[in-house]
Amino acid sequence: MAGDANNFPDLEYDVDTALVWKCPLSPDNNTTVLYRDKDYQYVASSQELLNKNCTFVSNMFQLLSAFDELKEQNEAMESKIVKRDVFHSSWFKQYHNLSVMYDWYKSLAHEYSSNVAVKSIGKTIAGRDILAVVIGTDSNQPAVYFQCLVHPREWITGPMCMYLTQLLARADSSNNILFSLLQKYQFIIVPVANPDGYY
What we know:
By secondary structure, the chain is of the alpha/beta class. The chain is built from six helices and seven strands; from the N terminus they run ββααβααβββααβ. The protein is 36% helix and 20% strand. The longest helix is centred in the middle third of the chain and has 25 residues. Keywords: Hydrolase, Metalloprotease, Protease, Zinc.
């Protein structure tokens, strides 16, 4: 069972009975409980679950379809954010999918075309582009290389690379540290090194 077993003392040792999402629970949280058909009576009779606002799901296909719908809604909302303001502070507090991230980098390169370029450095087995962001105009300078999202569980590296790229792209003489780094180095950032594992 996923979540804090202390919230469900009568289920805490029966790990194979149910998956519970959105813990810790409080009376006003909506919670999803995934269970096998044969375990419905046991799971549904749990006093801890009955006292919460729970949605019981036995059909994984329906659950995944609902997640897909939410994902599509989030993607539509994210693309509006990209078009509205690629530098909005809330942007870096969210995780974005591959196409939204790639659109963001292309918008950034368009905004700062004098010193930022985005190019494909190869294709994955599934045919997805592996993009590199090059910041700096002198290719003879030593390069500083960053790569993010190598493994599918490295979610935080995506926003970190985006934030770093934004800082470097916007650096000017008012930011002495970043500006001096850009005078000495070219930055090459591969924001999603494993697009097939993170899309």
